[in-house]
Structure formats: structure tokens, C-alpha cells
UniProtKB/TrEMBL annotation, chains A, B:
PROSITE patterns in the cross-refs: F_BAR (PS51741)
Alphabetized PANTHER family for the sequence: GROWTH ARREST-SPECIFIC PROTEIN 7, PROLINE-SERINE-THREONINE PHOSPHATASE INTERACTING PROTEIN 1
Protein name: Growth arrest-specific protein 7
Keywords recorded for this protein, A-Z: Coiled coil
Record-linked InterPro entries: AH/BAR_dom_sf (IPR027267), F_BAR_dom (IPR031160), FCH_dom (IPR001060), GAS7_F-BAR (IPR037957)
Keyword Coiled coil (UniProt): yes
């Protein structure tokens, strides 16, 4: 911040000038400043060299000094307004991302619910032996899978959706505050510019009056006129002083606005970096959770695979025969029981 | 098969005996056979050593010779019937597994549909710069994920559900054929056993008649009686021959039933091994497809991860500022344009 302020001080390279010198200076062929919407810039034809406050950083504080014409109407929008709009849009994007994640959560929950339900269905529950075991595990694996997806959705909710939704809760309020601050300073600048203009006109009238009276003195000398000239000169000097005072107040207001603009746009910039970092971080968490889900999912099938390796028709036959056999004595030829 | 038949031949260790020797043999203290539901087994008290046809294999052909009492009623069920029931149940289990897989397919389709739909929703579509790119890829990854699950469901349908459903299409018909064959042979056995019993009774009557006449001869000798005895002896011999013929037919029928039982139960055993192997194979395919799905799923997140790595707030600011900047000339103090 100290850097900025010193840069700012450097850039205000116009030292106060005494009104006398100003007024007595020969008319310059070119004006050195131009005032647009009450903000005073160096004149394009006599542009002084201005170093960017934060060169190579594309900092907001360097690029939004001018106002922008509304493409539709003639009303102009301040550069700061544009920046605010970006911030509010960013906040909106973040909210929509949270909504998107919320939809994903609902899909995962639905999927998990369906898998769990299917896992409970008693289809082929009477399959026996090693095949029966493998089958039961296959069904159980669905409830494990459901668990994995449920965990995914719950972590998405806590670790992605909520942070995205809650990050900068009072953001809009803060933006409104910034908006009012900057707008108030611009209004003050405008009213002080109007005062400068008024003082400038008054001075011009006083100078014209003094000129007229001076000519009158040349034509017909009289005490009365000399008194008038003295009075007119005094009034002209007073008008000059007033103009200087108004210009001073105007410059103070512009300086204050300038400082606030720099401070606030840099704050907006910091918030935008923070927003992007935060979103990046939580979307990374999303992909990480997705990876974990796939990994855990794989582990749900492993016990099924193991039991499928052990499926053995001979073993199953042995188990079934042992339980169901009716008799292993083979028939023999009939004999006459004598 | 040759092995079985030779085993079977070995087991039929009862050589034909002449009816004469049978009839004249002294009554043995113990009977050597016992007939249950028209099937003749060695008598428990004089059980000969019987090697299993397929020792250590728990083969169906060794353990289902006796009938089984129905636990509710008094009706008995043949061992073969039990085996058939197992086969039909196996077929039913297989069908239910196919149904289960079908439900899984529907769940995957629904999940894929929801993911694809969400991927199309334009939430946060206006996010800009590198973050906007990462976000767009994150949304696209959902449609890739949907594709993966759709492929999973389609492969489940073609490579698991259909084979499980279609394997042994005519199975029930084949089982019915086996059932009829074995039942018919058992019926034949029963009718031939009845014939043996009838012949046995006839012989007993003839022998009794011969005994009576022989006693009569001892008491009062007469030509007439001697003629009667001759006739009675002839009739007794004829009855003995008839019994031998009936026993022979019975043994033939039992032998045929035995052979058919061995052949058919071994066929059922082969089919059951085939069923288990087939199911095992297709459930392995299921787990394999699940693994592939998890793997492909992981790959859908990789491009998102890559773009998230590249998210850079400074870059995004540069892009946005370049497009939206209103002016980088800073305001200066107002000067009196003289």
C-alpha cells in the first residue's frame, strides 16, 4: 500500500501555482488538462509520461480511470461500476457452481439409494455353496458401492457445495458499501467541479469589469473611476482567490477519490484472486473426491472377485450331495427270499 | 462312460441261479435282499461291500438310489426327483441373477441419463478465463462419465444379462424328458415286481398243493393220487419257471433303470458343473466391467484436473482487463486553462 501511495504522490506532479502567476501567464497554445465527467486528465496532446502503478500486473487499479459510454444510451458508466459488476457476476457464478454441485449430490444420492435397494432384493438368494457365497457378496458389494456414493455426496455437500455457497456471505453488502463510497466521492468531485466553473465565470466577469473600467479611465480621467478601478481590481483579486480555493477543494476531492479508487480496486482484485483460488481449491477437492470414489468403488468388487475365484462346482456338489443324498446303496438283482 | 458301465457290471454280482436250486435250498436264516418301492437293495444285515462308482467325487450317480419320504405326507419322492428339482432351481437362480443384472442396468442407465442432463445445464456457463475453462471441462466430464456408465450398462446387457438369460433355453423341456424316461422305467420296474410277486404266490400255492398231495399219497396210496402228484409237481415246476422268468424280466428292468439313472444323473452333474462355470464366468465379466468402469471414470476427471492446475487468477485478470479496461490514464490536478 505504501508503494501505491508513493506512486500516487509521484504521479500528482502538479505543484500548486499562485493564482497571480496563472492569471498573468501568456495564453498557452495548448491546454494541459481535459476534464471528462468532472474528472481531470492530462490533455491528449500534452500527455505526460505516466508509469503504471503496478506495471506487468494488469492490476485493476491501473485500467479503470475513465468512464465508459453505455452501448445503448448516452449515459456513461464508471470504470469502477464495471469492476463491481464483474465481482457480482463472480459471486453469482460461484453460487451457480454450488447449485451444480448440489444437483450432482442429488444424482449421487439417488444412485446410492437405487443400489442399496437392489442390494436388498432377494433375487437368487437361494443359490447355494461357493457360487451362492460369491453371489451374496456380489449383492452385498452393491450396498458397499451405495455407501461409497453416499459418502461422496455427503462430502461434496460439506466440502464443496457449502463452502462455495457460504464463501463471502456479506459480499453484496460489502460491494454496495464500496459502490456508495466511490459514488459519493464522485458526487463531491462533481459539485466541487461545478464550484470551480462558477468561480471561473465570476473571475472572468470581474476581469472583464476591470478591463472595462480601465478603458474608461484612459478615456476620461475621474476620481470616481479610479475608485471604481481599485474596487474592481480588489473584487477581481478576490474572485481569483475564490477560484484558487475552489480548485484546491476540487483537487483535494479528486485526490481523495483517486486514493479510494486505488485502495478499493486493489481490494476487489484481492477478492477476485481469493474467489478464483477458493473455487479452484474446491473444484480440486471435487475431483479428488471423485478419484477416491472410484478407488473405493474398486475395493467393493475385490471380495466378490476373491469369492468368484473360489467358486468350485465339485465343492458345491459335495455340499449339496452331503445334505440331500437319499442313499448310496446301489440296487441289486432280486433274489427269491426262501 | 465305459468305466461306469464296467463298474455297474462289477456291482451286479449276482449270477443267475437255477430255480431248482433256489427252491430246494434250505431256508436261510437271513434274507439277502430287501425291496423298497419295487427297487431291490442288498439286505442291511447281509450288506455286501459296494465300492462307489465314482469314489471321492460326490457324484450324483452314487447317492440317489433310495427314495425319500416326503416330510409332510407319506408319499415318497425318488432321489432322481430331488436332483431334478435342484436343476430346475439352478435354472431359476440363473434367471433371477439375469433379472438382478437387468435392474443394475436400469440403475446405470438412469444414473447416466441424470449425469448427461446435468452436464447440459448452463449453470455458471459465463465463468471466464482459465477458471471458466476448467469449469467447462468439469461439466463436460459429467457427459464423459455418463458415457462410461452407459457403456457399462450396455455391456452388462450384452455380455452378462443376455447370456445368463439365454443359457439352456430348452432346459426345462430336457428335464421333463429325463423325468419321463426315468419315471417310465420305474413304472415298468413296479409292474414287473408285481408280476414277480404274483408268480411267487402262484408257486407257493403249487408247492403247498404238491405237499398236500404228497401227504395224501403217504396215507392212502392210489393211482389217482400218484397221477395227481405228477400233475402237481409239473405245475409246481411250471410255476417255478414262471417265477424265474418274471424275476429275470424284473432284473432286466431294474438293470435298465439303473443304467439310465447313472447316465442321466451324470448328465445332470455335467450340466450343473456347466451352469456354475457359466455363471462364474459371467459374474467375473461383471466385476471386470465394473473395474473398467471405475478406471474409465477416473480418466474422465483427468482433463479437469489438468485445467484446474492451470487456473491462474493473474492470467484471468489480464484477459478480463484487456477486454474491459476503460482507460489507464490517471487523473491529474485541475489547472486553469488560460
Amino acid at each position: 500500500m505504501a508503494d501505491i501511495e508513493s506512486s500516487f504522490d509521484d504521479s500528482s506532479c502538479f505543484s500548486p501555482q499562485s493564482p497571480g502567476s496563472l492569471l498573468t501567464t501568456k495564453r498557452r497554445s495548448k491546454e494541459t488538462t481535459i476534464t471528462i465527467n468532472c474528472v481531470t486528465f492530462p490533455h491528449p496532446d500534452t500527455m505526460p509520461e505516466q508509469q503504471l502503478l503496478k506495471p506487468n500486473e494488469w492490476s485493476y487499479c491501473d485500467y479503470f480511470w475513465a468512464d465508459k459510454k453505455d452501448p445503448q444510451g448516452n449515459s456513461s458508466v464508471s470504470g469502477f461500476e464495471d469492476l463491481l459488476q464483474k465481482q457480482l457476476k463472480g459471486k453469482q457464478m460461484q453460487k451457480e457452481m454450488a447449485e451444480f454441485i448440489h444437483e450432482r449430490i442429488k444424482i449421487e444420492e439417488e444412485y446410492a439409494k437405487n443400489l442399496a435397494k437392489l442390494s436388498q432384493i432377494s433375487l437368487a438368494a437361494q443359490e447355494e455353496g461357493t457360487l451362492g457365497e460369491a453371489w451374496a457378496q456380489l449383492k452385498k458389494s452393491l450396498s458397499d458401492e451405495a455407501e461409497v456414493h453416499l459418502k461422496f455426496s455427503s462430502k461434496l455437500h460439506i466440502e464443496v457445495e457449502k463452502p462455495l455457497l457460504n464463501f463471502r456471505e456479506n459480499f453484496k453488502k460489502d460491494m454496495k458499501k464500496f459502490d456508495h463510497q466511490i459514488a459519493d466521492l464522485r458526487k463531491q468531485l462533481a459539485s466541487r467541479y461545478a464550484a470551480v466553473e462558477k468561480a471561473r465565470k465570476a473571475l472572468a466577469e470581474r476581469q472583464k469589469d476591470l478591463d472595462v473600467k480601465t478603458q474608461q479611465l484612459e478615456i476620461k480621467l475621474s476620481n470616481k473611476t479610479e475608485e471604481d478601478i481599485k474596487k474592481a481590481r480588489r473584487k477581481s483579486t478576490q474572485a481569483g482567490d475564490e477560484l484558487m480555493r475552489c480548485m484546491d477543494l476540487y483537487n483535494q476531492a479528486q485526490s481523495k477519490w483517486f486514493e479510494e479508487m486505488v485502495t478499493t480496486t486493489m481490494e476487489l482484485e484481492r477478492l477476485e484472486v481469493q474467489r478464483i483460488e477458493m473455487i479452484r481449491q474446491h473444484l480440486c477437492r471435487y475431483t479428488q473426491l471423485r478419484h477416491e470414489t472410484d478407488m473405493f468403488n474398486q475395493s467393493t468388487v475385490e471380495p466378490v472377485d476373491q469369492l468368484l475365484q473360489k467358486v468350485d462346482p465339485a465343492k458345491d456338489r459335495e455340499l449339496w450331495v452331503k445334505e440331500h443324498k437319499t442313499g448310496d446303496t446301489r440296487p441289486v438283482d432280486i433274489e427269491i427270499p426262501v
